[in-house]
Amino acid sequence: MVPRASFARAARRTLRSQCSHTPNNRRTLASAKSAGYSYETGEVNGIKFASRDIPGPTTQLALVARAGTRFQLFPGFAEGLEKFAFKSTHKRSSLRITREAELLGAELFAYHSRENLVIGAKFLREDLPYFTELLGEVVSKTRFTRHELHEEVIRVIKLNQKSILANTDQMALNSAHSVAFHRGLGTALHPTSSVPITQYLHEQELAKFSQAAYAKPNFAIVANGASHDELERWVGEFYSDSPATPPRDFPAIETKPSKYYGGEERISHDGGNNMIIAFPGSGAYTGGHYKPEIAVLSSLLGGQSYIKWSPGFSLLARACKAQTQAHVSTRNLSYSDAGLLTISMEGKASHIREASQAVVEILKAISGGDIEKDDIQKAIAKAKFRTLEAGQNIGTGLELTGAGLVQSGKPSNLDGIAEAIEGVTEDAVKKAAKSLLEGKATVSTVGDLFVLPFAEEIGLHV
Question: Cβ contacts of residue 361 below 8 Å, gap of 6+?
Answer without folding.
Answer: 319
